[in-house]
Amino acid sequence: MGLKEKLHNIKGKVEGTNWQTMFGAVHTLFYTPNETTHSGSHVRGADDLKRTMMNVVLPLIPLFIFGMFNVGFQHNAAINGFPEGIGFFSPEFWNLDNLSIGALKLLPLLIVSYVVGLGIEIFFATINKHEVEEGYFVTGMLVPLIVPIDTPLWMLTVAIIFGVVIGKEIFGGTGMNILNPALTIRAFLFFAYPTWMSGDKVWVAGAKERANEIMAGSELDAISGETILGSLAQGQEFAYSVSDMFLGFIPGSVGETSTLLILLGGLYLLYTKVASWRIMLSSVIGALVMGLIFNGVVDAGWISESSKFYSLMSTEFWHHLLIGGLAFGIVFMATDPVTGSQTNKGKWYYGFFIGFISVMIRVFNPAYPEGVMLAILLMNVFAPTIDHYVVQGNVKRRLKRLKSKTA
Predict the structure, then answer these.
(1) What's the pLDDT score for residue 220?
(2) Cα within 13 Å of Cα(57), Cβ side
(3) Intervals of the chain under pLDDT 50
(4) Which end of the chain has the least Cβ crowding within 10 Å, N or C?
(5) Which value, to the nearest 10 degrees, does the dihedral of the CA atoms of residues 287, 292, 295, 299 take?
(6) Closest CA to 164 of 133, 147, 185
C-alpha cells in the first residue's frame, strides 16, 4: 500500500474529529488537495500557497547551511585569530569542526521555531475549524536566520508566541496580517530583551558566555564579536575586506552575512516570480541615494571627524548593501506579498523608502546601527496608505481624461 492510500485510509478515520486539521496539514504537504471552489468562476493554477512558500524556503537553505559553517568559523576565528586569505573554497572555513559548532547552535533554534510556530498555527486552525495555512513555513526558516546565535530557546519561544499570535493570528491568519511575522518576532526580542540583541557579545557563538566567565573570575580570555556596523557606530574602522563582506566571512545574524548567497536567492525569487523586482530595485536605489547624501555631507566638510556620526556617514555608499541585514531584508522580507504594497507604482515608493530609511536609521541611531527591521515594519504599516493614494491618483487621472473627451 502506497503513502497516498495510507493517507486516504487515515482521512476516513479522522474526519469530523479534532485531528482533521492536523491531518490536512500533513496531507497537503505531500499532495495537492482535490477540492476546488464550490461556487462562482475560478481558475485552477499549477501552483498554490504551499508551493509558493516552498519557493521562498529553497533559497534560504543555502544561507542556513553556510550559516552553520560561519557560526563555527567566527567562533574559532575569535579565539585563534582570523586566517589570512580566506576564500569561498578555503578548507579553514568548510571543515567539520565549524559545521558541528554551527549545527549545535543553529538547529535547536530552527526546531523551536517550527515546533512552537506550527503548534500555534495548528491550535488556532483547530479552534477556528479551518485548514492549517502554510505561511509559517517561510517564517519558521527566517526566524533562526535573523536572531543572534546564542538567543536562549525560552526567549525565542516567548517571542514566537507573541509574533504569531499578535502579529498574524489576531488579524485572521496568513494573508490577513499587516506586519511581517518574522520581523515582528525580531522586534519583540529587541525591545523586550535588548541586552541579548545588541552589543559585541551576541553575534559570535559563546562570546557572551565567555564574557560572563571573565566577570566571575575565570582565567579565560574574552571573545569579541563586534559586527561591522557596531564597529562603525563606535567610530572604528572595519577590519574586513570587501570580499569578506560580500562572501559572508563576518560576524552577524546567521542569514545576513553572505551577500553572494542572498543575491543568488533573490535571482531565484525573481525567476519564480515570487518576489517583486520593483521592490528589490527601488530598495537598492533608496539605500544608495541615502548613502550618497551622507557621503556628500562628509565630502562638503559639513560634519567633523570627531562627530559620532562621522564613521557611518563616511562609509562608501555602496558598502551599505554588503554589511548588516539590508540585503537580506530587501530580498526576503521587504518583498513579502502580503505586507508590502500591491500596486506596481506603490511598490516603487514602498521599496525606495525601505532602503532610504534603513540607511538613515543606521547613521542617526548609533545605539541601534541596523535600521532595516524598523524600516520594513514602518513601511508595512504605510503600504495600504501608499496603495490608496496610487489608486486614487489613477481614478482622478481617468476621470480627468474622460471629462476632457466628453467636453
Answers:
(1) 47
(2) 16
(3) 214-216, 219-220
(4) C
(5) -170
(6) 185
The single-letter DSSP state of residue 332 is I
Q: Residue 55 in contact with residue 269, Cβ under 8 Å?
A: yes
Q: Enumerate residues 6+ apart whose C-beta is below 8 A from 181.
A: 135, 136, 139, 163, 164, 167, 168
The DSSP output letter for 38 is S
Q: How many C-beta atoms surround the C-beta of residue 262 within 10 A?
A: 28
CB-based contact 193:155 (threshold 8 Å): yes
210-227 burial, b for 16+ CB within 10 Å, e for fewer?
Answer: bbeeeeeeeeeebbebbb
Q: What are the cell numbers at 334?
A: 521587504
- Alpha-carbon span 387 to 54, nearest angstrom: 27
**Which string of DSSP letters, residue by residue, matches 162-225?**
HHHHHHTGGGTSTTT-SS-HHHHHHHHHHHHSGGGTSSSSSSSTTHHHHHHHHHTT-SSPP---
Q: Which of the 8 DSSP states describes residue 237?
A: P
Longest dimension (CA), the chain: 88
**pLDDT tens per residue, range 312-338:** 888 889 999 998 899 999 999 999 988
Residues 235-290: tens digit of each pLDDT: 677 678 888 889 999 888 899 999 999 999 999 999 999 999 999 999 999 999 99
Q: Take residue 239 and report the three cell numbers written for it.
A: 577590519
Residue 294, helix vs strand vs coil: helix
Q: Per residue in 215-243, pLDDT tens? A: 445 544 555 556 777 777 776 776 788 88
The C-alpha cell of 369 is what?
546601527
Q: What is the DSSP letter of 82?
A: P
Amino acid at 150: D
- Per-residue cell: 122: 495548528
Residue in 358, 340, 338 with CA at minimum distance from that of residue 348: 340
| 297: nearest Cα among 280, 283, 315, 285 | 315
